[in-house]
Amino acid sequence: MADEPLVLGIETSCDETGVGIVRGHTLLANTVASSVEEHARFGGVVPEVASRAHLEAMTPTVERALEQAGLRFSDIDAVAVTAGPGLAGALLVGVAAAKAYALGLGVPLYGVNHLAAHVAVDQLEHGPLPKPSIAMLVSGGHSSLLLVPDVAKDVISLGSTVDDAAGEAFDKVARVLGLPFPGGPHIDRVAAEGSGMAVAFPRGKYDDGTLDFSFSGLKTAVARWVEAKERSGESVPVADVAASFQEAVVDVLTRKALQACGRYDVKDLLIGGGVAANSRLRALAQERCDAAGVRLRVPRPGLCTDNGAMIAALGSELVAAGVGPSDLDLPADSSLPITTIHV
Amino acid sequence: MFVLVLAFDTATPAVTAALHDGERVLAESTTIDARRHGELLVPSVREVLREAGASLRDVTAIVAGSGPGPYTGLRVGLMTAQALSSTSGAPAYGVCTLDVLAYASGLAEPFIVATDARRKEVFWARYADMRTRVAGPFVDRPGDVPGELPLVGAGARMYAEIVGEGRLVEDAPDYPRAGALAALAAEHLAAGVSGAAADAGADGRVLTSPSPIYLRRPDARVPGPPKKVTA
Ligand SMILES: [Zn+2]
Q1: What CA–CA distance (Å, rounded) separates B76 from B91?
Q2: pLDDT band with cut points at 50, 70 and 90 for residue B204
Q3: DSSP states of A195-233 as a string?
């Protein structure tokens, strides 16, 4: 609807400079400048490299978003920005930009929670989120299970990783297998040629009754297994190891997600975050949701990885819910809890 | 010609913003808080605009201190300048933060400006007088800052025992103030700059593009092969 406000969203919590423009639940622009290639040779995201890249990329990325949407700055009605959680120095660049845009345009500013935004973004693709829903967010930075009664007002943490994030485990195992950073897409590709049943890797916290995850033991088990093969002079069956590792991760993730749905009697499951792009996770989640009578929602990959549209989507949701804007002195908070949906 | 310069600097513990009409400082706000640049800057900008009864639409140039300075705070100022420039249409410039301290010192003879670079180092530059940088900026240990010249800036005061107490210039500011930054920029704007701003310091120009002067590479090591988990 044309009378819904036009929201500009800015995301800089990690290595993607994301800018999105949303009106209501309609996506008008989603532009991303990634510094991932600058981090690749370091085997992980280097915070200072990411912060420098955000400053360089911000203004051109905002201009591209406006161009993509066929809009001018003066059309923007509100600015939303990731206030946390994320890398402190990286967040600060986005927050500084958003404050200046809000002041310069004379429009309200909304500092929002990155994790809640991963949930809100699905509404751009699949329409209003049933209340309540279960959301599982899996990426290089987070592995969280959430109960979402109302994404604008009430998000409850049910569980999270006790050690490595799921995406982090993909990166570390990729390195052990000699695959490039970031590991997720490479493991997914290589695993397609192997068998997920080849090696029975451990599934951490599988039956512990909690909704928490643990991937550190799995990662170490893979490294041990590979080293043993190398020591005995045998070649490492990379495809089978990748597939079996991936199977262990997605088995635990989908099992806990469905347990959460059962425990809270919720019939809608949303999966978001970069790892949601994994083809085996999507397939197994669909299979298990079908068996349990749960509806599965997974946004398209461009909306799963970190992006500005998700921030605009949550901003738009807050405006619609009548939530007041943030003050211009809002801080970036690298460890913002999920219970704080906006600051 | 109507002139209204909005200036701010976040390259030191001072978060400072000011408005200047080409002849005088209309409003200035300075807070010393090394940890809250991101929180304080935009409210300070709003405050000086309000105090001067001006709107961002009236601003004819936006100038930010381009450092060198601790990077996290430094980027807040430059990002703010770039974003305000996009929305208002006023051009954005950077000015070396050490040049602002030099200008504010009012000195007519040679001296050195030094600010805190953390990690037991200082950012420093050498000047022939308050308007003329002749070397730098550099980053070095305080003991490696050369010469007998008088010293200006908090970096000199912090390491007075190493550089020599007697070299500190009395009454010179420790931190830059946006009023001085705006006045310095206004001088150069009045003298005329071509539309395109030069690269930082490339040809000795004071007004440069609004990009940070880093002087250090990011801390990052290319990892070796994965560590063995079995002994
Ligand atoms: Zn994320």
Answers
A1: 18
A2: low
A3: -TTSS----TTTTSSSS-B--HHHHHHHHHHHHHHHHTT
Q: Which of A72, A76, A103, A220 has the highest number of chain B CBs within 10 A, making it the mutation to test binding with B?
A: A103
Domains and CATH numbers, chain B: 5-97+176-191 (3.30.420.40), 98-167 (3.30.420.40)
Q: Name the residue with tokens 């040049």.
A: B99
Do you find a cis peptide bond into A108, omega within 30 degrees of 0? Answer: no
Give the H or E element holding residue A88.
Answer: helix A88-105
Cα atoms in the 13 Å half-sphere on the side-chain side of A130:
13
pLDDT for A3: 77
Is residue A15 within 8 angstroms of chain B, CB to CB?
A: no
Q: Which residues pair with A340 in a beta bridge?
A: none
Q: Min CA distance, A112 vs chain B (Å)?
A: 15
pLDDT, tens digit (0-9, with 9 covering 90-100), for A131-188: 999 999 999 888 999 999 999 999 999 999 999 999 999 999 999 999 999 999 999 9
Give the span between the Cα atoms of A39 and A56, in whole angstroms: 16
What is the distance in angstroms between the Cα of B159 and the nearest Cα belonging to chain A? 27
Phi, psi of A102 (to 5 degrees): -65, -45
Convert the pLDDT of each residue in B168-202 to its tens digit.
Answer: 998 899 999 999 999 999 999 998 754 444 444 44
Residue type at position A49: V
What amino acid occupies position A163?
Answer: D
Contact B181, B61 (CB under 8 A): no
Confidence (pLDDT) at B202 = 45
Adjacency order of strands within the sheet including B14-20: B25-32, B14-20, B5-9, B61-65, B92-95
Distance of alpha carbon B84 from alpha carbon B227, whole angstroms = 47
Instruction: Specify which residues A11 forms β-bridges with.
Output: A18
CA A187/CA A57 separation, integer angstroms:
29
The set of residues, in sequence order, having a beta carbon less than 8 Å from that of A149 and lying 6+ positions away, is: A131, A132, A155, A156
- In a mutagenesis test of the A interface, which of B59, B80, B85, B87 is the best target, namely the one with the most A β-carbons within 10 Å? B87
CA distances A230 to A197, A202, A224, A280, B229, Å, are 21, 20, 10, 27, 13
**What is the rounded distance in angstroms from the CA atom of residue B30 to the CA atom of residue B51?**
14
Strand partners, A148: A133
Q: Is the pLDDT of residue A315 over 70?
A: yes
Between the CA of B17 and the centroid of ligand 1 the distance, in Å, is: 34
What is chain A's length?
343
The pLDDT mean for chain B works out to 92
Contact between B101 and A118 (Cβ < 8 Å): no
Task: Please report, for residues A128, B30, B72, the alpha-carbon distance to residue A51 in angstroms, rounded to integers and kept in the order given.
Answer: 34, 25, 8
